[in-house]
Amino acid sequence: MNRRKFLADLVSGRCHVTQLVPNQQVTLIQLLTGLYEVHQLLDGKEWDADMENDLAQALNKAGLPCRDPHDDSAMSREELQAHYEQQFEADEKAEHHRYGTAAWKQNVAIGSTRLGYWDWVYEQVQAAWETEGRA
Question: Mean pLDDT throughout 13-27?
């Protein structure tokens, strides 16, 4: 069962709770439980470095697929740059959370890369995915 379509049908009114068969009722309970867990994560808590990952895990557990917020491996080079640039103020220089400009400059200085910063980041992300299973 496609949980996103199921939830969309419920929210839009195309399907009413009284029309649900038992397995759909279970699915609805699982989704609501997951949303409750997400609410509990957010309720009165400060946003910290682990919050994005905790939310992704709670949504995945509820059957609402959500990729790891720190997994950049599925992004193209352009998407990667745009993703990080939108997180910085206009007067700040955007950089990747794991592959910073200092590491890139060091690699340029020792001659191990001639790539521009975002091309180098993309290469590092892909290499990390291949060797570690994460970016």
Answer: 75
Place of tokens 């049908």: 9
Q: How far apart are the two ends of the chain, measured CA to CA in Å?
A: 30
Which tokens in the block code for residue 31?
Answer: 């989704």
Domain parsing of the chain, residue ranges: 3-61, 77-132
Tell me: the pLDDT tens digits for 33-73? Answer: 777 777 777 777 776 666 777 777 777 777 666 656 667 77
Kindly state the tokens that stand for 77.
Answer: 């080079």
The dihedral formed by the CA atoms of 18, 19, 24 and 25, expressed in degrees to the nearest 10: 10
User: Coil, strand or helix: which one is 25?
Assistant: helix
Query: pTM for this one?
Result: 0.49
Q: Confirm if 36 and 61 have CB atoms less than 8 A apart.
A: no
Write the DSSP symbol of residue 87.
T
Concatenating the DSSP letter of every residue in 14-81 gives: SS-GGG--HHHHHHHHHHHHHHHHHHHHHTTPPP-TTHHHHHHHHHHHTT-----TT--TTS-HHHHH
Residue 33: Cβ within 10 Å count: 14
What's the residue count for the chain? 135
